[in-house]
Amino acid sequence: MQLCMQALYIQHFPFSLINLTLMKHLFTKYLLIAVLMAIAWLPTSAQLVLVRDVAASSGGTGTAGGITFDYTIGEPAVATIAAGSWMLSQGFQQPEILPPLAPGVNPLMDFILFPNPASTTARMQFNLLTENMITLMLVNTAGQVIYSERRVYGAGKVTIPTPVDKLAAGIYTVIIKAGGMIYTEKLIVQ
């Protein structure tokens, strides 16, 4: 009787257990593909970070016949060929041309202050997305500017060493201004 009921069940319902398992497998497969495609279209801010860490003794840039060559001593020559808005580059050298930032976009990323507490030199490190004027200030607890530096830095990883060995032990505020944005961090001097 039970075998007869199963046969009746399969005849009246076209989706058998095998078909349902196959449908579940295909649904999972297509769902996974849809999620991966959605992630691929998400914008990421890390795509614009330009880190220039090349270990070499020397290098340079030259132009010959309308072609710009970037090279580093000890490595094969690297040619950068540009035509209009297209640029072809190989190797470690990165192009100096970066897309302009949209208005209001933060030009400074990954700001860290180390060592903290510091006794001789404190270092401020960050990534700049475009060339920018950077103002660095060290302010004491009374609000007085103890140290100030204003300079243009190029795009890429920037490290600013600041001597603190002549400062009195205490808590200071590091202020960095870049592209209309202000960043603050507490610094302890020992």
General description of the model:
The chain contains two helices and eleven strands. With 190 residues, it is of the alpha+beta class. The longest helix is centred in the N-terminal third of the chain and has 24 residues, at 17-40. The model is unreliable at 1-10 (pLDDT under 50).
Condensed summary:
The protein has two helices and eleven strands. With 190 residues, it is an alpha+beta fold.
Q: Which features does this protein show?
A:
190 residues; Immunoglobulin-like; four-stranded antiparallel β-sheet; flat
SSE topology:
Blueprint lengths: L1 H11 L4 H24 L18 E6 L2 E6 L5 E6 L2 E3 L19 E7 L6 E8 L3 E8 L5 E9 L2 E8 L6 E9 L2 E9 L1
Antiparallel strand pairs: 1-2, 2-3, 3-4, 5-6, 6-9, 7-8, 7-10, 10-11
String of helices and strands? HHEEEEEEEEEEE
Oligomerization: single chain
CATH topology of the domain at 108-189: Immunoglobulin-like
Low-confidence stretches: 1-10
What CATH architecture of the domain at 108-189 do you see?
Answer: Sandwich
- Strands of the largest sheet, in order across it? 1-2-3-4
Shape: flat
| Mean pLDDT rating | 74
Number of DSSP strand runs: 11
Approximate helicity band: 10-25%
End-to-end span in angstroms? Answer: 88 Å
Characterize the main sheet: 4 strands, antiparallel
| Rg from Cα | 29 Å
Q: Helix count? A: 2
Report the top-level CATH class of the domain at 108-189: Mainly Beta
Can you say what the CATH homologous superfamily of the domain at 108-189 is? Macroglobulin (MG2) domain
Work out the strand percent.
Answer: 35-45%
Q: What class, by secondary structure content?
A: alpha+beta
